[in-house]
Amino acid sequence: MQIHQLKIKKSKSRKRIGRGGKKGTYSGRGMKGQKSRSGAKINPIFEGGRSTLIEHLPKKRGFTSIFPKNQIVGLSTLEKIFNAGDTVTPAVLLQKGLIGNKKAKVKILNNGEITKAVNVKNCLISKAAKEKIEKAGGKIVNDQ
Q: What is the fold of 71-141?
């Protein structure tokens, strides 16, 4: 088969209205108004002067920060999930499903009691939680 034997599907040219010809008096543009004139460039949300749909929608108040909030883990959760001598890092917490966002920082709070000596690494920690972990025999290492 040669190139000249191929049947090429020809695309239909778009309708150019307002150029005279066999379209009738108004050339498919209607009678009067802004859209019947040449060079009419109208914003798609413009509705002829009445309030647009966007203006009718309620406004979202306040401010949304682009920085994620700290993800909170309690001492009681660490007591249940980890064994003595385990290392608690954000990666391990994500793997065990205790946190959801890997970009946000992890903060350990004083919720409950802890008796196991766990090593906490690269996590933010409250003063009371730090005291309880160290009292139980654990260590806190921050490389952040």
A: Ribosomal Protein L15; Chain: K; domain 2 (3.100.10)
